[in-house]
Write a structure and sequence with these properties.
Strand content of chain A: 25-35%
Oligomer: heterodimer
Number of domains of chain A: 1
CATH superfamily of chain A: Beta-grasp domain
Strand order of the largest sheet of chain B: 3-2-1-4-5-6-7-8
Order of helices and strands of chain B: HHEHEHEHEHEEHHHEEEHEEHEHEH
Number of helices of chain A: 2
Largest sheet of chain B: 8 strands, mixed
CATH class of chain A: Alpha Beta
Structural class of chain A: alpha+beta
Radius of gyration of chain B: 21 Å
Helix content of chain A: 10-25%
Shape of chain B: globular
Number of domains of chain B: 2
Shape of chain A: globular
Strand content of chain B: 15-25%
Strand order of the largest sheet of chain A: 2-1-5-3-4
Largest sheet of chain A: 5 strands, mixed
Helix content of chain B: 25-40%
Structural class of chain B: alpha/beta
CATH architecture of chain A: Roll
Largest interface: A-B, 21 and 46 residues
Radius of gyration of chain A: 12 Å
CATH superfamily of the largest domain in chain B: NAD(P)-binding Rossmann-like Domain
Distance between the termini of chain B: 49 Å
CATH class of the largest domain in chain B: Alpha Beta
CATH architecture of the largest domain in chain B: 3-Layer(aba) Sandwich
Number of strands of chain B: 13
Amino acid sequence: MDHKINIVYFGQIAEGTGKQSEMIEAKELHNKSVREFLNQQYPGIDQYAFTIAVDNKISEICDPENTREIAVLPPFAGG
Amino acid sequence: MFEEKDIARYSRQLILPGIGPSGQDRISRARVLVIGAGGLGSPLLFYLTGSGIGTIGIIDPDTIHVSNLHRQMLYRTDQIGVPKVEAAVSNLSQLNPGVQFIPYFKKFDSENAEQLVSEYDIVVDCSDSIQTRYLIDQTCVELNKPMVFGAIHRHEGQFGLLNHKNGPTYRCFFPEQKGKIDTKNCSETGVLGPLCGLIASFQADLVIRYCIEDPTLPTNEIGLLSTRNYSLKTIHTDRNTHTYPTNTMKRIERHAFYKLDKSDAIIIDVREEDEEPIVDDYRRILIPLNEIPHRKNEIPQTGDVYVICASGRRSEGAIDYLESQGYTNLINVEGGTYGFIQEKTQNA
């Protein structure tokens, strides 16, 4: 069975994608960065500030076949 | 200093392993600066005051507005219009007269940041602006002070102890991304009071545990809380090196903007089309924040151009983006349309 990755969206990014999370096939991240994948799936998302965590650690790089979860985290403004 | 007469007041935390008289003495000698006395600052201050922190500095430029009261339980209806720091000190002193409070009725900015932070042991970020959060981060790094940050977006919150024992800073988790559109604050997106209380409670817990030198204190992680599904996730990173830029954005204070002859002024309003408060005292060019990237050719690149939103936060984000596109003539209107309305009311 193909390996799947759970992508979790937070804050304004979740509102932009219309999803709290989604499962993708690991092969969708072959030969492209997480940011490139997100920009292709959700055009315009790159105009927002966000950071990426791969298996709960901040990283722009992921090994798709060994990744379980990617979190897409915008900085929050409210207080 | 912790004294015998205080044993009864602090008895329930004194008996906790790791506190005792020596831990309480550390708490009573601690100096904590709280930046922002709003949604997060309000519940946080209750817990810090109750715990017996020796000195608490509170900085906030706002007065109490009726729209604050659903989540800022530190204030009362009869205190509407009173500076938050003044009401906070008055109310908190009744909770614990043993705490010394130092109120600062002003905005935390690059002019006062270094002086203020240098006078305290630890800084608690309860601000409602990403730009302020980056300034706090930068100042804490420069002065080697720990920072407990908290931030909210609708039903989600972030918190963590940063710049502690050479651990990561705010920028290690959220590198500054010039030219990107930042998220909005609570006055623009809405928030439920209990989330503020939850995030502020985590922040207060971190501050107290820092004060007692708790060896189990996390130093390289932040928490992400969602009340949608009651999930709590921790995200880790290591210390990185960053360039800490100087904020050179031009600004106009809200009273000066109110007095400004606006007959020929170019004013860009980055709020949504029907967003209140409606202001018809001056002509504006309405370009909602999200439309700026593809409508920027409507904004002149010469002459003074004032950029306004509801509070001054989104306009900062808009100017950040436009400056990355080569603009050098933009002026942020501090306090936004809410500030303008307040000035108008006070000058009526």
